[in-house]
Amino acid sequence: xxxxxxxxxxxxxxxxxxxxxxxxxxxxxxxxxxxxxxxxxxxxxxxxxxxxxxxxxxxxxxxxxxxxxxxxxxxxxxxxxxxxxxxxxxxxxxxxxxxxxxxxxxxxxxxxxxxxxxxxxxxxxxxxxxxxxxxxxxxxxxxxxxxxxxxxxxxxxxxxxxxxxxxxxxxxxxxxxxxxxxxxxxxxxxxxxxxxxxxxxxxxxxxxxxxxxxxxxxxxxxxxxxxxxxxxxxxxxxxxxxxxxxxxxxxxxxxxxxxxxxxxxxxxxxxxxxxxxxxxxxxxxxxxxxxxxxxxxxxxxxxxxxxxxxxxxx
Length: 314
Prior knowledge:
Blueprint: H1 2-31, H2 38-106, H3 112-122, E1 127-129, E2 137-138, E3 142-143, E4 149-151, E5 163-164, H4 165-174, H5 191-195, H6 203-210, H7 212-233, H8 235-242, H9 245-249, H10 251-258, H11 262-302
Helix pairs in contact: 1-2, 4-11, 7-11
């Protein structure tokens, strides 16, 4: 019995010695930044038993699961913030694209997006080119001029549906209320759809032709400015005429006109006002016709050809 007890004490002493040595090495490793768990595992196996070690490992697994769950939550929150940021950047990009396309359109330069939109819009219209080899019919001129473009703005069928664009635009500008709809099928004609193909430089021209009062005011301002400029240039000649001896010798005759009866003055004013007004109207009409021809040429140049001479899609 004594021998067995002595053997057990020796065995315990050896285990304690090994444990202390491993603990010393573990402390040195921890002090130098290393991580070693062999002494803890040996201590748990020796003094706490296997059940305690298994419980510790189970707790470690639970902690690892909790850490993974927290990492997933942080990752999900990060993904949501990133998605919101990307969505905001996409909205800003689309807004910038729209603003740039609008400004480029004013200068006559079309972006790729605007060109695609115009191409899709042009596919909805029937626009053909009249040539010498394949002349296109026209309901106004019977046959469209070579090199001009004809459009089908309404629901008429056959050759009746084609009309030369310059003739259609001239009718619309001269009598907008009469040619708002087709005279045959009574279908409303969307003229703005054709004007939208023109560059931004023609928008001011269209805005000027849509309001006749604007053109009249512009012509009147031009005439007034020209008269003022002419007066400045001829100031010396006018002053010399007013100070001439011939004028003052016939001053008593001029008094008869100045002190004439009021009805006579009104009658003379009417005689001079009507011819001046008619001349002004003729000038405005002639200028308007020139502007309409210019607008028709610019819009016709920008219109895409969607139908060939045989009536098939181009």
